[in-house]
């Protein structure tokens, strides 16, 4: 049975429970199996040799998630080919594709945790009450060691955008 962490986060001030471990800087990032589309899956190994900024959002169809994904899409332009930015949500893959097309987002890779929430459970961000992933940002080096982690305390707030980008840039130098 997966670990449950009660009262570590809120949604509009109401306590929510996160399922999975609390990951920390220095930990090896767990593998994942997410959907690129309904038929094609992606794993952490698909991005081997790259620095990975993983932006986790509950749903692209909300204001903060929209803004978060657009912001990291803009940041991607200046980070180069050694970096991949992954946006993970529980949205269906075709909803992610529709949103990206409508928003003009073309530099981040959207991946869906809709099937079994395995990413949320492995990364400790699955919200028990909603079966959505909690807003979070992870930066992994080329060896999949976690170099930066922020799991938001309040679901409706923005993450720190500058710190994860700075963590990526430090790995590039």
Description:
The longest helix has 14 residues. By secondary structure, this protein is of the alpha+beta class. The chain contains 4 helices and 11 strands, in the order βββββαβαβαββββα. It catalyses: a hydroperoxide + [thioredoxin]-dithiol = an alcohol + [thioredoxin]-disulfide + H2O. InterPro entries: Redoxin, Thioredoxin-like_sf, Thioredoxin_domain, TPX, Tpx_CS, Tpx_Peroxidase_subfamily.
In what range is the share of β-strand residues?
25-35%
Tell me the number of strands: 11
Order of helices and strands: EEEEEHEHEHEEEEH
| Model regions low in confidence, pLDDT < 50 over at least 5 residues | none
Radius of gyration: 15 Å
Tally of helical segments = 4
Report how far apart the termini are: 41 Å
Main sheet makeup: 5 strands, mixed
- Shape annotation: globular
Outline the secondary-structure elements.
Blueprint: E1 4-11, E2 14-19, E3 33-35, E4 41-43, E5 51-56, H1 63-76, E6 83-89, H2 93-103, E7 109-112, H3 118-123, E8 126-127, E9 132-133, E10 136-140, E11 146-151, H4 162-172
Parallel strand pairs: 5-6, 6-7
Antiparallel strand pairs: 1-2, 2-8, 3-4, 5-10, 8-9, 10-11
């Amino acid at each position: 049975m997966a670990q449950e962490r009660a009262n570590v986060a809120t949604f509009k001030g109401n306590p929510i429970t996160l399922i999975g471990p609390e990951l920390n800087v220095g930990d090896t990032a767990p593998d994942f199996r997410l959907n690129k589309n309904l038929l094609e899956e992606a794993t952490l190994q698909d991005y081997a040799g790259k620095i990975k900024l993983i932006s986790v959002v509950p749903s692209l169809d909300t204001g903060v998630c929209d803004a978060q994904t657009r912001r990291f899409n803009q940041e991607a332009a200046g980070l180069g080919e050694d970096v991949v930015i992954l946006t993970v949500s529980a949205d269906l893959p075709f909803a992610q594709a529709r949103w990206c097309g409508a928003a003009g987002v073309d530099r981040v890779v959207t991946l869906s945790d809709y099937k079994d929430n395995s990413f949320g459970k492995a990364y400790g961000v699955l919200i028990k009450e909603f079966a959505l992933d909690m807003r979070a940002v992870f930066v992994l080096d080329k060896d999949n060691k976690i170099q930066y982690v922020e799991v938001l305390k309040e679901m409706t707030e923005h993450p720190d955008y500058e710190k994860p980008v700075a963590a990526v840039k430090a790995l590039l130098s």
